[in-house]
Write a structure and sequence with these properties.
This protein is mainly beta. It contains no helices and 13 strands. Strands 2, 6, 7, 8, 11, 12 and 13 form a seven-stranded mixed β-sheet that branches. The protein has a four-stranded antiparallel β-sheet with strand order 1-3-10-9, with no helix packed on it. The termini are far apart.
C-alpha cells in the first residue's frame, strides 16, 4: 500500500498563501508505476472531514465549491508528490489538511469513504 507524508502547513494571516506537499511512496505493478487518484481533505475542530480537491491520472481535477478559484491541486509524477497551492486564505480555511489516495485512478470523487490511504495531516491556521 502507498505511504503518504504531508508537509507545508503553518500559520498565515488572511489573504496569505501556503503550499502543501504530499510525498507518496512509489510502488510498481508488474514493473509499471502504480497510479492512484490523489486528493486533499481537511477537517476543522468539531466538523466532519471534507474533500477539498482531487486529481486523477489523466490530469482531470475537481474542487469543493468553497475553494474554487483559490486553491490549485497538482501532481508531479516524476517526484511522486502531490501539491495543494492555497491562495487568498480565509480564517474558515483553518483545519488539519490530509492527503489521501485510492487505487482506482480514474474516479473523480471527493467522497471521504472512497479513499483507502491517508497521511497523518498537516495543520493550516489562518488568522484574521
Amino acid at each position: 500500500q502507498v505511504q503518504l507524508v504531508e508537509s507545508g502547513g503553518g500559520s498565515v494571516q488572511a489573504g496569505g498563501s501556503l503550499r502543501l506537499s504530499c510525498a507518496a511512496s512509489e510502488y510498481t505493478y508488474y514493473g509499471y508505476p502504480k497510479r492512484y487518484r490523489m486528493a486533499w481533505f481537511r477537517q476543522a475542530p468539531g466538523k466532519e472531514r471534507e474533500g477539498v480537491a482531487v486529481v486523477v491520472s489523466d490530469g482531470n481535477t475537481k474542487y469543493a465549491d468553497s475553494v474554487k478559484g483559490r486553491f490549485t491541486i497538482s501532481k508531479d509524477n516524476a517526484k511522486n508528490t502531490l501539491y495543494l497551492q492555497l491562495n487568498s486564505l480565509k480564517p474558515d480555511d483553518t483545519a488539519m489538511y490530509y492527503c489521501a489516495a485510492n487505487d482506482d485512478d480514474w474516479v473523480l470523487t471527493l467522497t471521504t469513504g472512497s479513499y483507502s490511504y491517508w497521511g497523518q495531516g498537516t495543520q493550516v491556521t489562518v488568522s484574521s
